[in-house]
């Protein structure tokens, strides 16, 4: 288990380029299984989850070639289906959440798939019913081996169908779309998730020859085609990383420019941070954040306390609520952070409370943060990163704190933020990786 030693109280200055989006990359990489032709992908982030998925694809027989610093080609012309029955496959696949999205492509192309319970953050119940409901609607048979915790899905002949999803699951929608692109006839998915990750996936599939309409909405229509061909794809900048940098800049009174942020794809993210009182300027496609000694949380129009809650896209992503929460600790004002989707994602606030933050955890889903307006700095402590976004929130807290902090279990952070220590140190941070 590795740790970060973080010296607090330093102001950062300079430019930072966001990595390619983690959650998009996980979908896009799974989609290479849908064709025997070569697929070239750019802006692949060098992070643990993505590297694990690339390794898994390679173990499955996909030809993987690194063709540039952030570019790879993939060719799934000789997939080893027997490998899917091995313990090695099941173990590797279950070490990350994104691997669940190999099921849809495997079902579409080879008529069957299997997977053990996928990993990812332990942030509450993470059910997969939506995925299997969708596959079943397309005519596949689902079987769960509860002893071995293995999901089996079989369906040689998928047929397009109408389905109304019980929830707009992100990975569930991606999985069902990938299963449906080569089904016989028309599939309609209502209450589909429509995050930029999914928009990017659908655009890529269309370039491969799929016929998907309704992209960006919660009603997707897919006309099945016989075959898909190769393509080239480039990932969007990671909107969660961008939000993390905005919060980090405010907390540490840093002056930073986030380069090439593709602002028109960030949805409500910039406005949500603006409501926290954080000033930013859009300079072309860059986001400039000036050094801010004070920032004041808005109230609602009637003067009542602001609530920031997650919602499915185009609402505010749950993956940035921990960042909003930590940012509020040094703001002026009060905010209620309401994490509706996950029930165990706010427990990390006990570490912030130990550092001196004023937070009341009302229940597992809601925390009230009373901003200190920098009257008292947070104090550096030793802490463990429970999940990826809490981990970065603790890193932000440590960077703004008085004294030195140690953050353990930074593998969680490495899951989703590439070379984070080196990139922040280049702007003036003091973060040392201790192995
Ligand atoms: C690899 C990947 O892409 N992971 C992301 C993906 O996970 P993932 O696809 O696993 O998350 P889902 O969208 O399936 O659901 C997330 C949680 O929200 C709940 N839920 C979902 C939809 C809904 O309408 N109502 C509802 O309550 C689910 O029950 C679940 O507890 O989407 C999540 C929600 O944006 C993000 O936090 C994860 O970072
Ligand atoms: C929860 C997240 O990731 P995963 O779904 O991979 O656990 C996240 O990216 O914030």
TrEMBL record:
| Top EC class of this enzyme | transferase
Q: Which residues bind UDP-N-acetyl-alpha-D-glucosamine?
A: 97, 319, 341
* Similarity remark: Belongs to the EPSP synthase family. MurA subfamily.
Q: Which GO terms describe its molecular function?
A: UDP-N-acetylglucosamine 1-carboxyvinyltransferase activity
Q: In which pathway does it act?
A: Cell wall biogenesis; peptidoglycan biosynthesis
The reaction(s) annotated as catalysed by this protein in its Swiss-Prot or TrEMBL entry are: phosphoenolpyruvate + UDP-N-acetyl-alpha-D-glucosamine = UDP-N-acetyl-3-O-(1-carboxyvinyl)-alpha-D-glucosamine + phosphate
Q: Determine the domain of life of the protein's source.
A: Bacteria
Q: Which Pfam families match?
A: EPSP_synthase (PF00275)
The name this protein carries in UniProt is UDP-N-acetylglucosamine 1-carboxyvinyltransferase
Compartment(s): Cytoplasm
Instruction: Write out the residues that bind phosphoenolpyruvate.
Output: 22-23
**Gene Ontology cellular-component annotations:** cytoplasm
Q: What does this protein do?
A: Cell wall formation. Adds enolpyruvyl to UDP-N-acetylglucosamine.
- Documented EC number(s): 2.5.1.7
Cross-referenced CDD domains: UdpNAET (cd01555)
- Where does the UniProt annotation place the signal sequence? none
Gene3D superfamilies for this protein: Enolpyruvate transferase domain
Name the Gene Ontology biological process terms: cell division; cell wall organization; peptidoglycan biosynthetic process; regulation of cell shape; UDP-N-acetylgalactosamine biosynthetic process
Domain Enolpyruvate transferase positions: 7-422
Matching InterPro entries: Enolpyruvate_Tfrase_dom (IPR001986), Enolpyruvate_Tfrase_sf (IPR036968), MurA_subfamily (IPR050068), RNA3'P_cycl/enolpyr_Trfase_a/b (IPR013792), UDP_GlcNAc_COvinyl_MurA (IPR005750)
Q: Can you tell me which residues form the catalytic site?
A: 121 (proton donor)
The record's keywords, sorted A to Z, are: Cell cycle, Cell division, Cell shape, Cell wall biogenesis/degradation, Cytoplasm, Peptidoglycan synthesis, Transferase
